[in-house]
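Summary for the steering committee. One of the milestones for this cycle was to obtain a three-dimensional model of the protein with tryptophanyl-5'AMP bound, which we needed before selecting residues for the alanine scan. The sequence and ligand used are listed below.
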Amino acid sequence: MENQAPAKKKSVFSGIQPTGVFTLGNYLGAVKNWPQLQDDYRCTYCIVDMHAITVRQDPKQLRQRSLEAYALLLACGVDPQKSNVFIQSHVKTHAELAWVLNCNTSFGQLSRMTQFKDKSQKHPEDINAGLFDYPVLMAADILAYQADLVPVGIDQKQHLELARDIAQRFNTQYGNTFTIPEPYIPQATAKIMSLQEPTKKMSKSDTNVKSFISILDEKDTVIKKFRSAVTDSEACVRYAEGKDGINNLMTIYQAVAGKSFEEIEKDFEGKGYGDFKTAVGEAVADHLAPVRDKWKALMDDKDYLKQSYTDGAQRALAISQRTIDKVYKKVGFIPLG
Ligand code: TYM
């Protein structure tokens, strides 16, 4: 039909902490999906350095890691021409919106967040108010961009439900203000497990470096880590309950080699775990090699990175400022000028 306005693209938001090189878990659970959404959605992706300081950080290291994480996002295929890609502390609206949302979030609800409980157990010497309030800043990140969809791993589901609750409550109290975001959690890779303790999530803060793959690990290291992965004594490559280690390796292999579980089982019939672990290691290393090369080239071009995160921040500010203006008006603040 003529004269029909094109449908407005829906909006996507996600973020990642610059607390170390992304793991294979971060990559398969979240970041790998981000570039795939760029053509069909208006995407905004963010390095959340303000979330990172809820746990003590060395300032110099945080600066370095934030830049490295920004370059990693681009190396993974996030395109700053198609998406707004920026660093959270460059865009003041996140903190501004978080404050208003704080005043509309109950203490009881925040106390039930499992990540807060886990992290306060891990860092008993520093249970700061920011750590407790972390999910509200995350809600502000999402709601500031009126995101329809939030691509994350399963560990962020509870935080996302909170963001939805906060948005719904605010809309009821003050009138329609926020889009209610939906989680986008691809089931197959929603939770990649530790290679050493396959009942635990793979995490970059794990003290045992053999438990996770950093996406910048060299090929030899990747293969070595997979070869030392904890499995079981059955010596049969099949996906089944109780075979957490093998199930995890099959999940990873499926994601990087594009093979179904049936194909994998068939390919490795009668073969030992040694062969399988090496094959998974090689497939992962080959998959990640171009990311590493691209990352190194980007880190050699600091001017480009600076230009890119500056542009990204300016665009992000323009979008999120519209939400802040609306929110400030709704809660009764006098507009300036
Ligand atoms: P973070 O930095 O811990 O993790 C970034 C993304 O990686 C996913 N992830 C995993 N997925 C599968 N298997 C794993 N082992 C695994 N480990 C991590 C996470 O689910 C996440 O999607 N609070 C967030 C960052 C954040 C955010 C946001 C996310 C801040 N504001 C707004 C979405 C929207 C976090 O700490 O992610």
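Key point for the committee: The chain has a mean pLDDT of 96.
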